[in-house]
Write a structure and sequence with these properties.
Number of strands: 28
Distance between the termini: 39 Å
Helix content: 10-25%
Structural class: alpha+beta
Radius of gyration: 23 Å
CATH architecture of the largest domain: 2-Layer Sandwich
Shape: globular
CATH superfamily of the largest domain: RRM (RNA recognition motif) domain
Number of domains: 4
Length: about 450
């Protein structure tokens, strides 16, 4: 695409010699990205600071352009990472403002959707049950899971085309034609052909794993938003005219089940650059427990700024990395990556540990032990606004404001839910304040066996 190419060329020219500083922009230029880093990992750098609205990966160049929803969010991100360089796959990456005020990978602003979360291998579209439906196959199951968690319930266009996404029963899509009904991005040699027959054939075969998301469209006939998917080593966009709207999918897994078969890696995280004066096993248990069920936590005895966190499975571990790597915690930028260890060993009897290793495998505070829990649909990145629930009727607005203020928070806004006064939103002074408050006040005891529930909200007040 001409827009993307010119952006790349201009950034390249500036990188030669001394680069003149750019004025703040919501588009950020990220350099020295390792080749095996995914789009989801780049997006995770921006999530602690606000909504990420676009991504352009320049594979082979080790670069990316990340567009934030606002200039303020981009400024916060640059200010945060300038003194504390973020790392991806244990290599430092460098972030600066781009000369471009918005990222246009195509003339249609809403085209880049699913490729933000990983490499889209194949897409097929078809009619079934009077609906437009589509299947998208990612390079691996984690990309599909991350796309589902991030896009489910969002609209393609303002006020219409709401996405409802789940995993397909298919493990692989058979594509024989590259046209407006099907496309294999790994095969440029495929003929245009008809394509419809190929999709029907592939859908009749039983499969069992879940690296494919399955959309259906129930909107007006002929309404088909175009989608583009940036792929491969360059910034080019392959337009795939098709139909996406309310996305509904059947899945072979139990409702809400977080485990996706076949994901490489393990469930133990290495968490570093922690504040040794403030961090505790319980604090890590509560924070990482927002994104999965934490079974064990170990703070290193001789290096208190490093810890291991064992999640219930590899999917939850990756989700925690996506949302918490680069998050500021107790004055430091926390780094989270997969550990080389497969499990956290409990201390032997008589071994000096000082309470730094804790087993939480049977904790009643696990958010995801019930496979039908609504918590699966309410996983959001750290934000300054917290969702409060399980509030007793006797607790007032002032009571809750004073409770959060007593923990060092600055309360910027508060409101009860109109239809359910057991729930409320509270907006604090910063994302870091909200992280600290969640750790301190999740499961706060109001008395009479009433415990506060705290999570991050996607809303603001």
């Amino acid at each position: 695409m001409s827009n993307s190419t010119s952006a790349t060329d201009n950034e390249k020219k500036k990188s030669k010699g001394k680069r003149s500083p750019c004025s703040p922009s919501r588009v950020l230029h990220i350099r020295q990205i390792p080749n095996d880093v995914t789009g989801a990992e780049v997006v995770s750098l921006g999530l602690p600071f606000g909504k990420v609205t676009n991504l352009l990966m320049l594979r082979g160049k080790g670069q990316a352009f990340l567009e934030m929803a606002s200039v303020d969010a981009a400024v916060s991100m640059v200010n945060y990472y300038t003194p504390a360089t973020p790392h991806l796959h244990n290599q430092p990456v460098y972030i600066q403002y781009s000369n471009y005020k918005e990222l246009r990978t195509d003339n249609q602003h809403n085209q880049v959707i699913f490729s933000k979360f990983g490499f889209v291998l194949k897409i097929v579209m078809f009619h079934k049950n009077n609906q437009f439906q589509a299947l998208l196959q990612y390079a691996d199951a984690m990309n599909a899971y991350y796309a589902k968690m991030s896009l489910d319930g969002h609209c393609i266009y303002t006020g219409c085309c709401t996405l409802h996404i789940d995993f397909s029963k298919l493990t692989n899509l058979t594509v024989k034609y590259n046209n407006d009904k099907s496309r294999d991005f790994t095969r440029i040699d495929l003929p245009f052909g008809d394509g419809q027959r190929t999709m029907e054939t592939s859908l009749s075969t039983p499969f069992a794993t879940q690296n494919t998301v399955f959309p259906s469209y129930t909107g007006p006939p002929g309404f088909a938003p175009a989608l583009g998917f940036p792929q491969g080593a360059g910034p080019s966009v392959l337009p795939v005219p098709g139909a996406l709207g309310p996305l509904t999918v059947t899945t072979s897994a139990a409702p809400g089940h977080m485990t996706i078969p076949g994901i490489p890696g393990n469930s133990v995280l290495l968490v570093s650059n922690l504040n040794p004066e403030a961090i505790t096993p319980y604090g890590l248990f509560i924070l990482f427990g927002v994104y999965g069920d934490v079974h064990r936590v170990k703070i290193m005895f001789k290096k208190r700024g490093i810890a291991l966190v064992q999640m219930a499975d590899a999917t939850q571990a990756q989700l925690a990395i996506n949302y918490l790597n680069g998050q500021r915690l107790y004055g430091r930028v926390m780094h989270a990556t997969l550990s080389k260890y497969q499990t956290i060993q409990l201390p032997r009897e008589g071994q000096e540990d000082k309470g730094l290793t804790k087993d939480y495998s049977n904790s009643p505070l696990h958010r995801f032990k019930n496979p039908c829990s609504k918590n699966f649909q309410n996983i959001f990145p750290p934000s300054a606004t917290l969702h409060l629930s399980n509030i007793p009727p006797s607790v007032t607005v002032d009571d809750l404001k004073n409770l959060f203020t007593s923990k060092g928070s600055t309360v910027k806004g508060f409101k009860f839910f109109q239809k359910d006064c057991k729930m409320a939103l509270i907006q604090l002074g910063s994302v870091e304040e909200a992280v600290h408050a969640l750790i301190e006040l999740h499961n706060h005891d109001f008395g009479e066996n009433q415990h506060l529930r705290v999570s991050f909200s996607k809303s603001s007040i």
